[in-house]
Amino acid sequence: MSAPSLTPSKAAGARHAQPPADGPPQRGGAFGRSLKRNLTAHGFLIGAVLCFAFFSWYPMVREFLLAFQKTDRGEVSWVGMENLETVFNDPAFWQAWRNTALFTVLALVLGFAVPFAVALVINELRHGKGYLRLLVYLPVMLPPVASVLLFKYLYDPGYGLLNEVFGLFGLPEQQWLQDPGLSMLSVVIASTWMNMGGAALIYLAALQGIPGELYEAAELDGAGLLRKIWHVTIPQTRLILSLMLLMQIIATMQVFVEPFLLTGGAGPEGSTTTVVYLIYQYAFNFNNYGAAAALGLLLLVLLAGFSAAYVKLSRAEDE
């Protein structure tokens, strides 16, 4: 006798009733793979945090401790406010702050306005934008020492290119780095040329994100070039302008490379002595690490306070 045959519907039901060959899904395997993937990601993250803590946070904590300590023949002792008193009683202290403030103001006038103007010009051009972007960013790709030595050659009173150009127009030669009245301006010009490429590209990217309809509406209202910049371009790029202003102030307050290589640091009659250069002198010329740390702590507190006040005012404007 032959075995009873199943109808197609019953056969399909039988197949669905049978358990899968691989058995139920293994939740443990999926959880293990997820855990392994997350552990790998957290491992990379922890490594980055540890590196940042060792090279950034630890020096800040160490500087804070050194500001209230004194090392004598390998013995460390707490001296309280003695290092701060040493710094405040130094005649070069106030001169360094005045020079740093002057450099910051001049750098904002040139280094903040010039990159924005360059970005505006490049944005208005129809052809050659890529080549101009490369040309503007080229000084940033050069080593800072090479750029500073180039300007040192340009400023040379004997065979410098700037004095040669002045001579062609019948203008008197200038002692660019030897004159106390011109030394800081010369340093600012070199610093602006060296660092404006990055800011110009950031401004250019912000300008290219402005909708063209806004400019068309301004033109229909009869707005000229300056009015379009004032009423359209600046409001649309206010956020990036504010951020770049804050970053530039923080960077210029810590200037060191340009005056150190162009004028030897102090400059004629101390005209280019900055706060960071004074820190360098305390640490490596006077071997007074406590005073250097105290002055660095003052600079840190000033910049942190300025940044906090700036962020608070920006939030108040947004609200």
Automatic annotation (TrEMBL):
- Disordered: annotated span: 1-29
User: Which InterPro entries does the annotation name?
Assistant: ABC_transporter_permease, MetI-like, MetI-like_sf
Asked if the record carries the keyword Transcription, the reply is: no
Name the PROSITE patterns for this protein: ABC_TM1
Where is this protein primarily located? membrane
Pfam families reported in the protein's UniProt record: BPD_transp_1
Tell me which UniProt keywords the record has, alphabetically: Cell membrane, Membrane, Transmembrane, Transmembrane helix, Transport
What transmembrane ranges does the database entry give?
Answer: 39-58, 101-122, 134-155, 182-206, 237-257, 289-311
Q: How does it sit in the membrane?
A: Multi-pass membrane protein
Query: What are the coiled-coil residue ranges?
Result: none
Report domain ABC transmembrane type-1 positions: 97-310
Write out the annotated subcellular location: Cell membrane
> What family is it from?
Belongs to the binding-protein-dependent transport system permease family.
Query: What is the protein name given in its UniProt record?
Result: Carbohydrate ABC transporter permease
